[in-house]
Amino acid sequence: MSTPFGATQTIAGGVASQGVSFTGTVQTPYTVTQLIPSWNTTVFVDPASKLSSGFTAQFGTPAPPAGGSLDWGILAPTAAAVSLAQYLDCLRDLLHDPDDVYTTAAQKTSYINQGLQKRDRETGQNRVLISFTTTIGTDTYTFTNLGNTNVFDLIGMYLIYGNLRVPMGSGSLTELNERLRWYKPAFQMAPVGFARYGPAQFIVAPAPASAYVLELDCSQIVPKDFLVSLTDTDPLPAPFDAPVCYWAARMAKYNERAYDEAREFEQNFNDEVNRRDANKVGTTGIVPSLGMGWRS
After folding, report:
1. How close are the terminal C-alpha atoms of the chain, in Å?
2. Given CA atoms 239, 243, 246, 248 in this order, what sign does their dihedral have?
3. What does the alpha-carbon distance between residue 76 and residue 36 come to, in Å, rounded to a whole number?
4. Tens digit of pLDDT for each residue in 58-83?
5. Whole-prediction pTM value?
6. Is 6:74 a contact under the CB 8 Å cutoff?
7. How much is the average pLDDT of 1-25?
8. What distance in Å separates the CA atoms of residue 157 and residue 168, rounded to the nearest whole number?
């Protein structure tokens, strides 16, 4: 069974490529069924940009100076979303506490939300595409600059150059300084490489000579207390629901000072995360160099 999704995306003036982000994630592969810009232009979607978190539309003619809009629609396989009510039933079974006698429903809900955040950090699969405009002459940015406080990791980066999406090479700060970042003040051009620095910074090089648009593939965690109502659902579909209850049970047992049981549930959590990795649908890391001419 497939489910239609769609919305209207605001497009800034002069933009030739626009990332479209979904609310939550959808099952892949999906079909883009509608792309209707508000100005006279051709528009298409690069199949490589179709991720579970969104896609990127490219315009043959950039948006007019006043900006515009894009009506989009997709048809995606229906994901088996797991609700808070289902997670609570699972956790009650694991804790042998069906009536919430030893751990209240509110405590269980808190532990389940912590399990979601732990799962997101460990697997990196709660992904989001962010369109980010650089500042002329500035090569160092923080995740705060991206406008999404839930981002904790950077997987890949692309330079939007006209109607092209150019993969940017990744490396260590040492490699970036050795190959592209010799000068101070910084040499300015279109950035072709980037490096992570510390827990929440990234550096691009050369420093932007214009307000270039970058497309960042990021990992994020759900906000604190994400699941509130019983009908609220996990943003990730199966099989990524599997580790959540084990971490929630670990937290409950740790709170009871039942440390042996807590360690057992933690091992169950790790086993499920590792199983996702073994099946090539688990942990992610920064994308190895794609357009790495600067390293050759």
Report:
1. 47
2. negative
3. 19
4. 999 999 999 999 999 998 776 567 99
5. 0.69
6. yes
7. 83
8. 6
